[in-house]
Amino acid sequence: MSFARTLLRVKPAEQIADEGSHTQLRRTLGLVPLVALSVGATLGTGIFVVLAEAAPAAGPAVVVSFVLAGLAALCSALSYAELAGSVPVSGSAYSYTYATLGELVAWICGWCLLLEYGVSVAAVAVGWGGYLNEFLQGTVGVTIPDALSAPPGEGGVVNIPAALIVLLATFVLLRGVRESARATTITTLLKIAVLVFFVAVAITAFNSDNMTPFAPYGFAGISVGASAVFFSFIGFDAASTAGEEARNPKRDLPRAIILSLAIVTAIYVLVAFAAVGAVGVDVLSGSNASLATALRIVTGQGWASVVLAFGAVIAIASVVLTVLYGQTRILVSMSRDGLMPSMLSKVNQRAVPARNTLVVGVVVALLAAVVPLNQLAEATSIGTLVAFSLVNIGVLVLRRTRPELPRSFRTPLMPWIPLLGLALCVYLIFGLDAITWLTFAIWTAIGLAVYFGYGRRKSKLNGSAG
């Protein structure tokens, strides 16, 4: 096989699905745990942490930024849903791209997903430390010193709480998927309850003056805000990484993806509206615990912010758990295809890829300990947007090349929905900072070096290349 054809070789959807059907992972997850997995991986990431980063860029129109980012995510979610029903395996967008656009593009997609999942876990862990300090301040009157709770560049030396929550999530994952799913469902329900509590309290202090001028920087500011808060929607695809642990993946994966995105978008818009209306953009800006700060101002007492901070401490921990889970399962698929070392797909007696989980946990814990939040969030956004773009292209390609392939869900309004999803993703990519592009370029260059130095030679498709 020629060099060019090697790079473009496609792994048939039937072969991918057949390998998934003979997985060593255990099929224990129904629709509710799958929805909880996606909501748990998404809800909290942005509204607890990134709202403070996006509000200065968009002003009160940050509410519209969430809507715009949600629309981009919805188009991509519909594409995800079709591919998840057609290729129900653990590899998520990586596997879908392998079946449609070829091995090199699949590798780039998988490499982007590793950036998306790994860095988003680290970013959320950093935000978790802010709420932990808010909770400690409100209950025992002490906080962890900045030197031990903030990364270099933000007044600290090492962020110990961020590293500890990643290691704790790693321990839970090592106990098995059923135990992890139970913990995720409980913490997701708690998270929703805390955010409903926030809206109910904050809306009582709503002041229309805080909403004017609504869009001080025009649509340009809204789009910059949307690019930043798109980070908040990372995770709705987490159900697709559970394709080999779902009891009925063809039926439940598309439902879980769409339901979770609808729930998350509605809550984000409500919370952003209530927060900006209650205290204004200036108060929200520059705090890793902005919602707790807002409640303290609204109530004039500390009890409400303590309740929110406690809920955030528990709830954001579930984001760390579920997104870390997703990354380990993508690595399982890449390893099974030969593009990553085989040890990453081996499971223990609990049907857990233990070595994979330990490696991911330690690397992400180190990242969370030393890298500032804003750099993590934007690096995650660009990796996600590239992966989503490839999914939108993939669903178009698979419709054309394999029209007869069984599909348990079909993206409506073809080809316009995937094309709109692709256009919105590209638009949001160009709204990111130049330093984010540089970071992504370096990451991609490293990924290509790994692929040409290891993955291309070790690919399992070499055995059937002819």
From TrEMBL:
Q: What membrane topology does the annotation report for this chain?
A: Multi-pass membrane protein
Q: Which residues cross the membrane?
A: 31-52, 58-83, 104-128, 158-177, 189-208, 214-236, 257-281, 301-326, 352-373, 379-399, 411-429, 435-454
Q: Where in the cell is it found?
A: Membrane
Matching entries from Pfam families are given as:
AA_permease_2
Establish whether keyword Transmembrane is in the entry. yes
Q: Does the keyword Transferase apply?
A: no
Q: Which InterPro entries match?
A: AA/rel_permease1
- Which Gene Ontology terms of cellular component type are present? membrane
Alphabetically ordered keywords of this record: Membrane, Transmembrane, Transmembrane helix
Q: What is its main location?
A: membrane
**Where does this protein have coiled-coil stretches?**
none
**What Gene3D superfamilies does UniProt report for this protein, alphabetically?**
Amino acid/polyamine transporter I (1.20.1740.10)
Q: Which GO terms describe its molecular function?
A: amino acid transmembrane transporter activity
Protein name per UniProt: Amino acid permease
Tell me the organism.
Answer: Saccharopolyspora hirsuta
Lineage at the top is: Bacteria, Bacillati, Actinomycetota, Actinomycetes, Pseudonocardiales
